[in-house]
Amino acid sequence: MSDDWPHDPDGEEGSEGRRKYGHAVLAKKIDEEEDFPLSAEEYVADYGDHPVRISHEQVVSVEEIFEHVDAEEFEDFVEFHRTLGEAMRENGYWFYEGAEQFVDA
């Protein structure tokens, strides 16, 4: 764990069976009912320095993931999920078994 992060990405409980990994961490920072449409710029301003555990060996910042996102705004939760998931898979931030089958979907 690097001292560069404002907090431990896994918290005191660890990664809860991997539920605090990758895409789930990004989605848990927003309220599906109240935060949309969601500005990518505002999201990064609020959470850019937050850590996201990609694998058991790799932690990156929210800002690093968003460097690969072209969208400026997300209309709803589904669009946010799809856009972030695609960017993560295409740029090596998604290490789940079978992820490659969704890249061209």
Automatic annotation (TrEMBL):
Ranges of compositional bias, category Basic and acidic residues: 1-19
Disordered: region residues: 1-20
Source taxon at top rank: Archaea
Lineage, top ranks: Archaea, Methanobacteriati, Methanobacteriota, Stenosarchaea group, Halobacteria
Organism the protein comes from: Halolamina salina
Pfam family, one: DUF5785
Record protein name field: DUF5785 family protein
